[in-house]
TrEMBL record:
Compartments in which it is found: Cell membrane; Membrane
Organism taxonomic ancestry: Bacteria, Bacillati, Actinomycetota, Actinomycetes, Kitasatosporales
GO CC annotations, alphabetized: ATP-binding cassette (ABC) transporter complex
Protein origin, superkingdom: Bacteria
InterPro entries: ABC_Gly_betaine_transp_sub-bd, MetI-like, MetI-like_sf
Membrane-spanning residues: 49-78, 90-114, 134-159, 201-227, 239-262, 303-322
Any GO BP annotation: choline transport
UniProt topology in membrane: Multi-pass membrane protein
GO molecular function (one): amine transmembrane transporter activity
Broad class of the protein's primary localization: membrane
Domain ABC transmembrane type-1, residue spans: 87-266
Swiss-Prot/TrEMBL keywords: Cell membrane, Membrane, Transmembrane, Transmembrane helix, Transport
Protein name: Glycine betaine/proline transport system substrate-binding protein
Length: 872
């Protein structure tokens, strides 16, 4: 019978949905992520024990004093094992998934209960949803929503929905038919029958369904940890992949406590919302023994809610005012708080290099987030843009299949270690086994098995596809799939008992220093040549983070450095990887600046601590250069202050010493009158940009207007106005005082005063509508690259000769800031540099000038030393 290509059809369908409904998946992702982030912020904000008190108070209200005490003790235990944050992440995930599930499940159950055709259609769908292995839901979830919380929530919703639908339908169908008939007989509308008769009586069954939804959602959370969902699932997954008994037990006990609390509370909630359950509760209280009444007493709803509100307000106040936590030590704030997502495979060299870069990036002012993934999920996440980079790709052999599949969506940032080797290893006490060919003859010695690692690892694929068939091992050996930690654990047990064992290993690995092992030779070259360890990143990472990308491209560790780093992390213990990295860096203090150099960032200027007052105009070139110098000066230890002025105020302030310096003096023409008036109290530090011009510009679609003379007689075309900028600028004074008069335009046109942003906004509106407009402009300006404009020729040279951009300062500036003055004298920018700096600031947007400058500086890593050199 020919093979039915069902899997290929499903794969094609998933690809079609991803390509054509990406807008829908993006919307769902935004909604779900927003719900999770909001709820997680609320749950994680308060002090742990105070929030535990709130949860205990809810338990007291729902179940009584003893459950409340036990609930508090359980959550206190979670806090004591340092898993509070993960527990709150998990609780947020469960609640979000539970709410979404109930919103869909209850209406579907009601519909199915009132329509047997709908019930017949839904039943097999629910069977499919409930019996399909939960892991399978994660695969399309990754394709549609990437890695993280959202695919975990979506998979959880699908997995936990069936009992909600089934129990709702069952509850309504079980309502006594005579009661429904009685309601109908009295003329009750079907909707009121549903709301007033069926739902209240079915509520206990529906609430049981809600309880099951919550429980299934919690069971799915652990699986969601495999795709990067935060919380206890990630902790348990990491413990499983590293066979860490302590971590696994602690994560497991935290899950159990959450499960018991949610189970008991959702079960007890039925007693508060169901009329039948409230009657049963009243009978239970009446039968309680007099001596034990205190254990059965529960606060009234109003009292409980007041208590919750008071505790919540106290918790909010403590989290707002009481936090004294210090962030990581920042030695050079290059990142300015920018987040970076780093993924890693739970292999020793991957853990070591990842947490090393986490520490380095934190010291450079970034906010890195690290997350462990399976190999396949790691590559998929990078290709989708959910992960920025990772440092443990074994190429060109081990991870060849993943690289071939995703290389069009990835960047290779270079290798940092090599060559490596893949091999099968056996203890040295196993005699007569030196090569893979020898292994084939001794299958009984090794109980016909080779202990492997993660099934998705490239080495395992090579073993299955090439090595075992190449040496005939597939006939007599089975390859045991598990994890690296499981393999090492089995190796340790067998080695202690002197039992024969064959394991998949690689070099470098600390196991070779701990155990006396033999690397089996590979005479046929089935494993291929030695790999190198490469760092890979998502497409576009180098453009978005040029400084980090450059650091990683230059990253190198030798065998001694890598093995000593791995040893330091091993000594620190699980969960303390970064502490191990910090201990290692203390022994290698020069490596921070070597691995993540900040050009000039560690060098302070001779006048470090000085605080020059820098003024600027709201013009693009002045904003760009002012924020650029602010960044450079801060790196040199200065404390600059910047403030915006109009032209007249700027020159007045500089002449009186209120402003020390500014970088946008248009001389010798545009600002000549201000210079002539105040020059006795000012100093011209020098020009940093040449070949400027002042002009009037019109869109290119305005025909027959090529010069200022062509404007004459066409005031009707332009509404009788020329759109100007700030009235105090030299260009505006020149235009009104000289240019219009020389061309006979002063009686025909009115120059509107305003601002540069207002002029540009008017230009953009008119350009979009193809309306004629004449605006005051100058060169250089980014508007000429954004719009097709005509610079009106000035044959009479009424605007005067070309200007230069000068740095002007108060006359005391050279003595007050001699080092800064020296830098400014030698400073010069090209047209390309200035234009790219202005563009970077424009892209960053208003209020984000410093980010725009930082991004530009990252793309010009030597700019600080060039602008502000400090002798070493």
């Amino acid at each position: 019978m020919p093979r039915l290509q069902l899997g290929d059809w499903i794969n094609s369908g998933v690809n079609w949905l991803r390509d054509n409904l990406s807008w829908l998946f993006d919307f769902i992702s935004s909604v779900v992520q927003g719900m999770y982030d909001g709820l997680n912020t609320v749950l994680s904000g308060p002090e742990p024990l105070l929030f535990a008190g709130i949860l205990a108070l809810l338990a007291w209200w729902l179940r009584g004093l003893l459950p409340a005490v036990l609930a508090f003790l359980g959550f206190a235990l979670i806090d004591s094992i340092e898993l509070w944050g993960e527990a709150m992440n998990t609780l947020a995930l469960v609640l979000v998934a539970g709410v979404i599930t109930i919103v869909f499940a209850v209406p579907l159950g009601i519909w199915a209960s009132r329509n047997r055709a709908v019930s017949a259609v839904i039943r097999p769908v629910l069977d499919f949803m409930q019996t399909m292995p939960a892991f399978v839901y994660l695969i399309p979830g990754i394709f549609f929503f990437g890695l993280g919380v959202v695919p975990g929530v979506v998979a959880t919703v699908i997995f936990s929905m069936p009992p909600g639908v089934r129990m709702t339908e069952l509850g309504i169908r079980q309502v006594d038919a005579e009661l429904v008939e009685a309601a109908d007989a009295f003329g009750t509308h079907p909707r009121r029958t549903l709301l007033r008769v069926q739902l209240p009586l079915a509520l206990p069954t529906i609430m049981a369904g809600v309880n099951q939804v919550i429980m299934l959602a919690l069971s799915m959370v652990v699986i969601a940890g495999m795709v990067g969902a935060e919380g206890l699932g990630s902790t348990v997954f990491q413990a499983i992949s590293s066979v860490d008994v302590a971590m696994g037990f602690e994560g497991g006990i935290a899950v159990v406590i959450l499960a018991m609390y949610l189970d008991r509370m959702t079960s007890a909630l039925n007693q508060r919302v169901s009329p039948l359950a409230r009657r049963a509760l009243a009978k239970e209280k009446a039968k309680a023994l007099s001596g034990l009444k205190v254990l059965h007493w529960r606060p009234a709803t109003s009292v409980a809610m007041v208590g919750v509100v008071v505790l919540a307000l106290v918790a909010g106040g403590m989290s707002m005012f009481g936090s004294d936590e210090k962030g990581p030590e920042v030695s050079a704030n290059v990142g300015k708080g920018q987040s970076v997502n780093i993924g890693y495979i739970n292999w020793d060299e991957g853990v070591a290099s990842t947490f090393l870069w986490k520490e380095l990036l934190e010291q450079r002012g970034f906010k890195p987030k690290v997350q462990s993934y399976d190999v396949g999920a790691l590559y998929t996440g990078m290709a989708a843009g959910n992960i920025d980079f990772e440092t443990d790709s074994w190429l060109p052999t081990t991870h060849a299949s993943y690289w071939a599949k995703y290389k069009s969506k990835l960047e290779n940032l270079g290798s940092w270690y090599g060559p490596t080797s893949l091999e099968v290893a056996v203890p040295s006490y196993v005699k007569g086994v030196k090569t893979l060919e020898d292994l084939e003859k001794k299958s009984s010695t090794f109980k016909k098995k080779i202990v492997g690692i993660e099934p998705g690892a490239g080495e395992m694929k090579l073993m299955q596809d090439k090595v075992m068939p190449g040496y005939g091992l597939n006939k007599n050996f089975s390859l045991v799939k598990g994890s690296t930690a499981a393999m090492l654990s089995q190796l340790d047990r067998s080695y202690a008992k002197k039992e024969p064992i064959a394991v998949t290993l690689w070099s470098p690995h600390w196991a070779y220093s701990k155990y006396d092992l033999v690397k089996l030779k590979d005479p046929k070259g089935a494993f291929g040549k030695g790999d190198r360890i490469d760092s890979l990143a998502r497409k576009g990472f180098s453009k978005d983070n040029p400084q980090v990308a450059k650091w990683i491209k230059d990253f190198k560790l030798d065998e001694k450095q890598l093995t000593s780093l791995e040893a330091a992390i091993q000594d620190a213990g699980k969960g303390k990887e970064q502490e191990g990295v910090r201990a290692w860096l203390k022994k290698n203090p020069s490596l921070v600046n070597k691995l993540a150099p900040v050009p000039g960032g560690e060098q302070k200027g001779k006048d470090a601590g000085a605080a020059p007052m820098i003024g600027y105009f709201p013009w693009d070139e002045d904003i760009a250069t002012t924020y650029l110098w602010k960044n450079v000066l801060e790196r040199r230890g200065y404390k600059p202050e910047i403030k915006q002025y109009d032209v007249g105020s700027m020159f007045t302030g500089m002449s009186t010493g209120q402003v020390d310096v500014e970088f946008d003096g248009w001389l010798p023409v545009a600002q000549k009158q201000y210079w002539d008036r105040y020059k006795k109290n000012l100093v011209d530090v020098g020009s940093w940009y040449d070949k400027t011009s002042l002009e009037i510009a019109v869109p290119s679609y305005v025909k027959d207007v090529k010069s200022l003379a062509d404007l004459k007689g066409k005031s009707g075309t332009f509404g009788g106005k020329i759109v100007g900028i700030e009235p105090g600028t030299g260009e505006m004074k020149l235009l009104k005082g000289q240019v219009l008069k020389q061309y006979g335009l002063d009686k025909e046109y009115k120059v509107s005063d305003g601002s540069s942003p207002a002029m540009l906004a008017e230009l953009e509106r008119s350009y979009a509508k193809k309306e004629p407009v004449a605006v005051v402009l100058w060169t250089p300006h980014w508007a000429y690259s954004k719009y097709k404009l005509t610079k009106l020729a000035d044959p009479k040279q009424a605007f005067g000769a070309s200007n230069q951009l000068h740095t002007l300062a108060n006359k005391s500036f050279p003595k007050k800031f001699p080092e800064f003055n020296g830098w400014l004298k030698k400073w010069h920018m090209t047209e390309k540099e200035l234009a790219s700096l202005e563009a970077s600031i424009q892209d960053a947007g208003k209020g984000n000038e410093e980010k725009g400058v930082q991004k530009w500086m990252d793309a010009h890593p030597g700019i600080v030393d060039k602008m502000a050199p400090v002798a070493s």
